Structure formats: C-alpha cells, structure tokens
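Exercise 3.2. Students should predict the tertiary structure of the chain below and write it as structure tokens, then compare their answer with the key that follows.

Predict this chain's 3D structure.
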Amino acid sequence: MVRRYIEDTGLPFDILIDESREVSKAYDVWRRVGLDAWNIARPALFLIDRDATIVYSFVARSQEEFPSHADIVQTLTRLGGG
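Answer key:
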C-alpha cells in the first residue's frame, strides 16, 4: 500500500518501509503490545538533512497523535525544501 502511494504520487524524497522493525527500535518508536505478534510503532516523523542530521523529530504519545502540518512545512522551508 505504501509502495503504491509512493509510486502514484511521485514523492521527491525517500520513505522508509521498516518491515523488520530494526529502524523503529533504533529510533525508540517501536512498542510491544502484549503478545509478540502485536507489534506497533508510534506515529513518528523524522526529517533528516543531507548531512544525515535529524533536523526535526516528532514521536507521538498515542496512536491518534500526529505532527502538525505547519511544523513540517516550517522546517522544510527553513531547510530550503518547502
């Protein structure tokens, strides 16, 4: 589903699909919910510049929380990408 969205929209940036959960665990957004089969990641967004520096991060406290569009656009504009 995500791959198709990326292909359909032609996004000009990379999106990570973390099927192994290695990156989710490294960024501390993965949570185990009861049984091993119930693994989730909290909604999160990391903007990483060309020097591999995280310039913006958002990690939700719940599954219903998301970063504000204004914060994302403001950061991209500051970086010269918005």
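Discussion points: The beta strands are 30-32, 39-41, 44-48, 54-59. The chain has one domain: 2-79.
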